[in-house]
Write a structure and sequence with these properties.
Elements: H1 10-18, H2 24-60, H3 67-116, H4 119-124, H5 127-169, H6 171-218, H7 220-225, H8 229-281, H9 287-328, E1 348-356, E2 362-371, E3 376-381, H10 387-394, E4 402-407, E5 410-411, H11 417-423, E6 424-427, E7 436-437, H12 438-442, H13 451-460, H14 464-469, E8 477-478, H15 487-501, E9 505-509, H16 517-531, E10 535-539, E11 551-556, E12 559-564, H17 566-572, H18 574-585
Helix pairs in contact: 2-3, 2-5, 2-9, 3-5, 5-6, 5-9, 6-8, 6-9, 8-9, 13-15, 15-16, 17-18
The structure holds adenosine-5'-triphosphate.
């Protein structure tokens, strides 16, 4: 996947903005309220200046202070501020809504896309990376949408408005203030430049530390059993130290901006106060105007910093949007998927099937085989021969590069995904359970199953007995790792789930390899029940477990080299006989 680009990607920005189109009227209102609220804020210091001038002149001219005018002005000022706050509230309210709607839509699209993507995609992208796209990148987009628009408008309006007001009050003093402007921009830019390098290093150090923490926490039992705790602790130190360094530098540098700008501002205040004081004495400017000018200078520097940050934020957000769109843009293989369920009982045919995961590394080579409905077929062969791959093609987790795979006479690429999943099921070595109750785990994919159907499936799968011994029976809650269950029990649950979904084709990935012999017997019984009336394809890693299969396909280097029953293969299949004898010698 492409990396972040330092230049703004206009196409991505345009596409991101297109998500805002449905909310254009709300956005227009936000823009108008932003302009108005900023205008009101800008008028504030001017009115306050008038108050001070009135007060000052009343005292100096001995004509008495015009309290009526002052109270009028103060009331007007209060109204201005209140109205400005009210407008800010409206714009915030609308913007939060728009940003959250867009975020909701993006999350929805991403999730739907992930549910549709072929398994091959997940081989290429790590779960951590996908989670970061789904959580961090969407978060980034959300917060930018929420803040950037109003910030841009208010910052620009403030800058323009303040300059106009200052020019009205005193062009000369405005000129003095504006001369210092490039200096403050220079300071901010310089520091931002350095601190950005540090922020990037901070993110990298954080990523490395997270990766290390994840690895050491998930492998905790392994670390303990090999007494590697001390070693892991010492390996942690450099990760922690580099994050400390990067954090320290970035925070220190960004913390420098405010005091430095404050220093610069104070110098400007002093200059304006001295020159303004001289002008007041010369009666070329009112004292309230000097006061207003100083307030404007204070307001003026804030939007400069904000605008400097906005471009960085937009760039980072576009990078996030790009990462999201990369996933959304992955096109699915197109075919005339029909929701037609082919008639039949599970006949399978591989015709001239070739497949490779990576270019120029053929895994399956010209596979031609037909399996009869209801046949119990085992695939055996050396490690890496392509047994699992052949089974996965049947589930269309991957699609053949050449040739076709058919079920009951229908090419599986023309069968709707959902229909295909109802026709075929797999029981893997690694059981797939998720957090939820035992019942929810069994009814996964068939939420409308009745209680009777669930229990019958569990009884047939030999799972009912152990489920009833659990504290809450079928309502017992499992965590993500189903840590309360043994490996064998997890497999029995998986068998119950498949039993309930009642597919016509069953794929078993030698599900019984890592359990004790008593549980293995239970599982074998469950599987025997499950196999009844279905075509079964067992990917076997040990030959003795499949010697009773109706038919054994022997694979070697991506091809089926022998095909027959155990007895016939022992007699006529040189390669099978070799594998069988080797296994017996190894005492398996
Ligand atoms: N997702 C994948 N991406 C790339 N190559 C893969 C992928 N899965 C498997 N392979 C490669 O394809 C080849 C066949 O793998 P497969 O799992 O089908 O073999 P197998 O006969 O089932 O082996 P085993 O008995 O060890 O499970 C192996 O060389 C393997 O490294």
């Amino acid at each position: 996947m492409k990396n972040q680009d330092s230049k703004i990607q206009w196409g991505t920005l345009k596409r991101l903005l297109s998500y805002l189109l449905p909310y254009r009227f709300r956005l227009l209102t936000v823009a108008m309220t932003s302009v108005l609220s900023t205008l009101f804020l800008i008028l504030g210091p001017f009115v306050l200046g008038l108050v001070i001038t009135t007060l000052f002149e009343g005292m100096v001219n001995n004509g008495g202070i015009d309290f009526y005018r002052i109270s009028q002005l103060l009331l007007g000022l209060a109204a201005l501020y209140l109205f400005s706050v009210y407008l800010s509230y409206i714009q915030e309210y609308l913007m939060v809504g728009v940003a959250q709607h867009v975020t909701y839509t993006l999350r929805h699209e991403l999730h739907h896309q992930l549910m549709k993507l072929p398994i091959a995609f997940f081989d290429r992208v790590s779960t951590g990376d996908l989670m970061s796209r789904g959580v961090n990148d969407i978060d980034k987009i959300s917060s930018t949408l929420q803040q950037t628009l109003t910030q841009t408008i208010t910052s620009l309006m403030t800058m323009i408005g303040v300059v106009v007001m200052m020019l009205i009050i005193s062009p000369l003093l405005t000129l003095i203030v504006c001369i210092t402007l490039p200096l403050s921009i220079l300071i901010t830019k310089r520091i931002i430049k350095y601190s950005q390098v540090q922020f990037r290093q901070q993110q990298q150090a954080l990523g490395a530390l997270n990766g290390y923490i994840e690895e050491s926490y998930t492998n905790h039992p392994l670390i303990q059993s090999y007494h590697q705790g001390e070693d892991m602790k010492s390996k942690f130190t450099p990760y922690n130290a580099s994050l400390f360094e990067a954090n320290w530098r970035s925070q220190f540098l960004s913390g420098l901006i405010v005091p430095l700008l404050n220093l610069l501002n104070n110098v400007i205040y002093v200059v304006v106060a001295i020159i303004g004081g001289i002008f007041v004495v010369q009666r070329t400017i009112a004292i309230g105007d000097v006061q207003a000018l100083i307030m404007y200078i204070r307001i003026f520097t804030q939007p400069i910093n904000r605008v400097a940050n906005i471009t960085n934020t937009i760039q980072a957000t576009i990078a996030s949007a790009e990462r999201l769109f990369q996933v959304l843009d992955i096109s699915m293989p197109t075919s005339d998927y029909g929701s037609k369920v082919p008639e039949g009982r599970g006949e399978i045919s591989f015709e001239r099937v070739s497949f490779q995961y990576d270019a120029n590394k053929p895994i399956l080579k010209d596979i031609n085989v037909k399996l009869k409905a209801g046949e119990d077929v085992a695939i055996v062969g050396s490690s890496g021969a392509g047994k699992t791959t052949l089974a996965l093609l049947l589930l269309r987790f991957y699609e053949a590069n050449e040739g076709s795979v058919s079920i009951d006479g229908l090419d599986i690429t023309s069968i709707d995904d959902e229909v295909l999943r109802r026709m075929t099921s797999i029981v893997m070595q690694d059981t797939w359970l998720f957090s939820g109750t035992i019942r929810e785990n069994i009814t996964f994919g068939l939420p409308l199953a009745t209680e009777d159907e669930v229990i019958t499936a569990a009884i047939k799968a030999r799972a009912d007995a152990f489920i009833r011994k659990l504290p809450n029976g079928y309502d017992t809650h499992l965590d993500e790792q189903a840590s309360g269950l043994s490996e064998g029990e997890k497999q029995l649950l998986s068998i119950a789930r498949v039993m309930l979904s009642d597919p016509r084709i069953l794929i078993l990935d030698e599900a019984t390899s890592n359990v004790d012999s008593r549980t293995e017997l239970q599982i074998q019984k469950g599987l025997q029940q499950l196999k009844q009336g279905r075509t079964t394809v067992t990917v076997a890693h040990r030959l003795h477990t499949v010697r009773h299969a109706d038919r054994i396909l022997v694979m070697h280097d991506g091809q089926i080299v022998e095909d027959g029953s155990h007895e016939s293969l022992i007699e006529n299949g040189a390669y099978y006989r070799h594998l069988f004898l080797k296994e017996q010698q190894n005492g398996m």
